[in-house]
């Protein structure tokens, strides 16, 4: 039985095996529109694999993924996108020979917008996250902290109900993290989406997320409010150490 909020994505006891390696075991989590959910855990814990399942890039080998109550087992990645689920990638995937504006615009065109409408839309989105001054820079010349912001802008063109961000602050300075934190914090209100945030920077995660889901070795260690997670001894032992 499912008790689905009409606008939520959820995994139900999802498992993923790669040959003999069990990358995800029995993980259940949900993300509602309007919330920011943190997904944390050590390297190799299965965070990206879980996001791949939630976006159609990886089929679960067990359990299922539900989008707004619909079973997605026959969906392709494109179907997930059309149903309002957008993502960014851990490594960033911009078209390096194109300008920032064109990178964002091309997503609009692929959704069926005419070039001019797509450009207008792209300008609006770049402005909404404070990077319109980068519009005419070649994407390949950006420092990767700016690349991350452009990747978020590209995802927002789809007007997603859900946006899944895979380590958007990796390698950023404290100041850049603060800037990114402000962008992510504005997403539910300004763009109406639920956000799943994978991030190793704990001050970013703790400052942004209403709930945090912790994975370790492909299994759920715990899920709870930031303060509960911060004080959970199993999380401290497996991941946080005494840093937070
Ligand atoms: N396509 C694949 N084929 C085989 N093994 C894979 C594949 N993708 C991931 N894995 C393995 O699955 C496990 C989980 O990987 P995953 O990338 O999901 O972890 P992660 O939590 O995102 O780690 P990180 O913090 O380093 O990004 C790891 O052991 C990884 O080596
Ligand atoms: Mg990862």
From TrEMBL:
Keyword entries, A-Z: ATP-binding, Nucleotide-binding, Plasmid, Transport
Record-level GO BP terms: D-alanine transmembrane transport; L-alanine transport; L-isoleucine import across plasma membrane; L-valine import across plasma membrane
Record flagged with keyword Transport: yes
GO CC entries: plasma membrane
A GO MF label: ATP binding
SUPFAM superfamilies for this protein: P-loop containing nucleoside triphosphate hydrolases (SSF52540)
Gene3D superfamilies documented for this protein: P-loop containing nucleotide triphosphate hydrolases (3.40.50.300)
Residue ranges occupied by any ABC transporter domain in the UniProt entry: 9-242
Protein's name in the database: High-affinity branched-chain amino acid ABC transporter ATP-binding protein
Organism of provenance: Rhizobium etli
